[in-house]
Amino acid sequence: MSSRARQIAGVVLRHQARALARSAFGLAGRARLRAASARAWREAFEELGPAFIKLGQLISVRPDEFSDEIVAQMQAMQDAVPALPAAAIREVVRSEFGRDADELWDCFEDEPVASASIAQVHRARLKRAYRPVWGGELPAGARVAVKVIRPGAAEAIRADVAVARRLAEAVVRRGLVRRIDPVALLDEFAASVERELDLRVEGRFADRFAFDFRDDPVVQAPRIVWPLTARRVLTMEFIEGWRLTEVDRALAEGVDFYGLAVHGAEAFMRQVFVYGRYHADLHPANVFVTPENRIAYLDFGIVGYLTPQERYHITQVMAALVYRDPDRALTHSAELGVHVPPEKVQTVRRELGELLDALARPGEGTNETSSFAHFGYGFLRLLGRHGIEIPSGYGMLIKSLATVEGCSRMLYPEIDIIATAQPFTTRVLAKALADPAVLRERMPEAVRAALRVLVS
How confident is the prediction for the chain on average, in pLDDT? Predict the structure, then answer.
């Protein structure tokens, strides 16, 4: 076993020993022991650094494979670390461009505005005007955010992934896990992190996002400055605004929270159901509301892509949720790769129907029971209980939709995302079904769906 593998094992064992102590060595009950153990996993991952913090974020979207306690702890993972000295960041800039930061930008600030496990962000000003790929010109002197990959972060993450994969293979060989496939999870994780380590990928998605929403006066993304962007450095427009955790300050400035909450939810549905590319790492730090009553999306490091066929079937699954139709949900989930064995179809359909029936109709019940998250995570857990494999990306999409719901409720707690989704999904499906080829194929199903709408 390598020294890093021993270190990883030591950190995990130390935190789990603390969990045993917190739970009175199990005497306080199984629930308290599970909660303490899940907290210990999160604390160990945070201590082990960038690779494990990112792995924890992946685990947080897999309630089908991990316990509720672990999923909740990983969702609370803190990706904030002490800032590196400015000299280290400036050296990365010099390595990428062959010039000092002060030659590239005016007023490059040594004090970062954000510092995470992979990158940190510094403010600066443009030396000269720049016309971006999409949007208006950024004038000379415009404030920009310069995101820089922390030196050594990429190498450390790749090394940790390799060690973790060897440990996972050993665990699988010894038959120590049955419910999850840790090797497949790490392979999915490694591919995601490689994309995140190349900031040019993030810049290209930000440009595409701006193009998608070019006619939307409410949705905003930072404009990218490509001459000052490289693999490890991304220069973008600095957007002023308030985080979703600062709603009181924004309210005092007259921000229309209800309008932004509804518009933001619909904007994300457009990303998923219409464009087939979506921001997959939305959380309160990545969404701003601006003084101009706009929604600004930041940090496009983690994104999801969908084919036209996947978009259609996912829209149908959302329609199944809106109209509480378990048969439709199972039919179109199967087209997305959720294959229920024939002998389990009746049981899964019954349990899914019960889950849908538990959703309160608009104006009834609580936010918890009428939420998309209640359905989405419940569906994943249902499939996990029956040993049904979840396709890659399916969990990430559900997590993203649930997170959008959470962000919308930070703006307006009473918003009903399911009710908001109803007219949107109906319009999207109507447009798809207007295609003559699709209409011929889907006519029987469309008639049944229309009848369900009329009697609901």
Answer: 85
Which are the contacts of 131, defined by CB distance < 8 A and separation ≥ 6? Answer: 137, 138
Task: Count CA within 13 A, CB hemisphere, residue 5.
Answer: 11
Strands 143-149 and 277-279: unpaired
List b or e across 344-361, with b for residues whose CB sees 16 or more CB atoms inside 10 angstroms.
eeeebeebbbebbeebbe
Highest mean pLDDT among 164-178, 310-324, 359-373: 310-324
Q: Which residues contact 121 (CB under 8 A, 6 or more apart)?
A: 112, 113, 114, 115, 145, 146, 147, 148
Residue 293 CA to residue 98 CA, distance in Å, equals 40
pLDDT of amino acid 201: 95
DSSP string, 107-151: S--SS-SEE-SSEEEEEEEESS-B--SSSSPBPTT-EEEEEEEPT
C-alpha 426 chain-centroid distance = 25
- pTM of the predicted structure, to 2 decimals: 0.81
DSSP state of 413: T
The pLDDT tens digits for 273-321 are 899 999 888 777 788 899 899 999 999 988 888 999 999 998 998 889 8
Count Cβ atoms below 10 Å from residue 28 Cβ, excluding itself.
13
271-300 residues labelled b (16+ CB within 10 A) or e (exposed): bbbebbbbbbbbeebbbbbbeebbbbbbbb
Q: 283: which residues sit within 8 A by CB, 6+ positions away?
A: 403, 407
Q: Do 398 and 377 meet the contact criterion of CB atoms below 8 Å apart?
A: yes
| Long-range CB contact pairs, 243-252, < 8 A, 24+ | 243/284, 243/285, 243/287, 243/288, 244/284, 244/287, 244/289, 244/407, 244/410, 244/411, 245/284, 245/410, 247/289, 247/410, 247/411, 250/289
Confidence class of residue 452 from pLDDT cuts 50, 70 and 90?
Answer: low
Collapsing DSSP to helix, strand or coil, 192 comes out as helix
